[in-house]
Specification:
The chain contains seven helices and no strands. By secondary structure, it is an all-alpha fold.
Length: 208
């Protein structure tokens, strides 16, 4: 099943759709928290603050859309209120761990410089993924004449990606080889996440 077909299946079920929105919200919130954790105590630029604020706002927005599915639930990020809870929770943490190890072992980064470099590469990979995922989700929502829309997130994530490329130009200079490696890591994690999402939709009837 390709990604669009999987999202179609999810959107067709109020309960699955609510859990999908909640899972995306949790992942956006995790991203916001990771960005804030990577900040230098004093050398914080406007773009970093903007990204952290917008990721947190995306988490809130996605959470607020759950009620439009018609499903009563998903008030927290507890496992039973998520799709693929383990993989959804570990996705960003695993990517951050792999990239930090790469930066430390292969490029010799450490300390605050390591945290900032990891922020750049992790966020770049996630924005590339968001630039694929959210437009497909929005397309499915429009085809189903849903009350829910993620158009605002699509536009903002596209802007984030452009800003990340500029920041990597400034920090790394020649960053494309690093980016290719990071995207290959993210692709493997994404495939595992999608497989787990698909499995969670098939565990038992999920209509409500």
């Amino acid at each position: 099943m390709d990604l669009k077909e999987l999202i179609k299946q999810i959107v067709s079920s109020p309960k699955l759709h609510a859990k999908w929105l909640n899972s995306l919200s949790m992942m956006e919130n995790t991203g916001a928290r990771k960005i804030s954790a990577s900040e230098h105590d004093h050398l914080v630029n406007e773009i970093v603050l903007k990204h952290a604020a917008e990721e947190a706002r995306h988490a809130y927005y996605l959470k607020s859309q759950i009620k439009k599915t018609g499903f009563e639930g998903c008030k927290t990020y507890l496992s039973h209120e998520l799709l693929a809870p383990v993989q959804s929770a570990q996705y960003l943490h695993a990517l951050d761990t792999f990239i930090s190890r790469y930066l430390k072992n292969e490029l010799g980064f450490s300390g605050k410089e390591l945290k900032y470099a990891a922020y750049l590469l992790v966020t770049y990979a996630i924005e590339v993924r968001a630039d694929e995922l959210y437009p497909i989700y929005e397309e499915v929502l429009r085809e189903n004449e849903s009350k829910i829309s993620v158009r605002m997130i699509v536009v903002e994530e596209q802007g984030h990606l452009e800003e990340m490329i500029q920041q990597m130009d400034d920090f790394f200079g020649d960053w494309k080889n690093h980016a290719d490696y990071v995207l290959s890591l993210e692709q493997r994690l994404f495939e595992k996440w999608v497989a787990a999402i698909q499995k969670s939709t098939q565990t038992k009837p999920a209509y409500a």
